[in-house]
């Protein structure tokens, strides 16, 4: 089955630090990947859609200069949280759909838990 | 009105019980529908897609009513391992670019 990995799985950092999270599709190619954020006891909120070779599409209210997305290849998208603050502490999850697949099923990475002190 | 709305739960039922979750969506042009389950502090995992004719996978049955814009999930003979949050997911476009998640319904199965 389709596997998506994320790295790192957990980050604890000081306020003001930038944190980079990687999302990889391991056994399929993903033209499009998605980045979500989930606060405790809340649902996933789509932050942005990452498009291979072009700029990401951000959801309303998500600062593109704070959450930098790069989708340089068909198997890798990165999310960089710049100058992280405690309110950025959250569970960040990426997902991808198989570009060569027939369905639009999203496969999720295991998530990255970010804690900003 | 929320784009995808679910029973808030939590549902607390005994092992072996049958439990049903409901979900409504606001965009009548929505294309595809899914149920995901999410365990505590883990990523969502696809449970099953939902087809217009209804579909069954073991103890799980999903139904779609396009006229009422309503999706349901039925779990029969519930197991302790079914305890999780169940997310109703709607794709509003023909691609994967407009996926909306419901807020989830928490299910707890007691022995």
What does the secondary structure layout of this molecule look like, with pairings?
The complex is a heterodimer of chains A (117) and B (111).
Chain A: E1 4-7, E2 10-13, E3 19-25, E4 32-38, E5 45-51, E6 57-58, E7 67-73, E8 76-81, E9 90-96, E10 107-108, E11 112-116
Chain B: E1 4-6, E2 11-14, E3 19-25, E4 32-38, E5 44-50, E6 55-57, E7 60-65, E8 70-75, E9 84-91, E10 99-101, E11 105-110
Parallel strand pairs in B: 2-11
Antiparallel strand pairs in B: 1-3, 3-8, 4-5, 4-9, 6-7, 7-8, 9-10, 9-11
Please report the number of helical segments of chain B.
Answer: 0
Our measurement of the CA-to-CA distance between the termini of chain B, rounded to an integer number of angstroms, reads 37 Å
Average pLDDT over all residues of chain B: 91
- Give the biggest beta sheet of chain A: 7 strands, mixed
Strand content of chain B: over 45%
Quick overview of this protein structure:
Chain A is mostly beta strands and 117 residues long. Chain A has strands spanning 4-7, 10-13, 19-25, 32-38, 45-51, 57-58, 67-73, 76-81, 90-96, 107-108, 112-116. In chain A, strands 2, 4, 5, 6, 9, 10 and 11 form a seven-stranded mixed β-sheet that branches. A four-stranded antiparallel β-sheet of chain A has the order 1-3-8-7, with no helix packed on it.
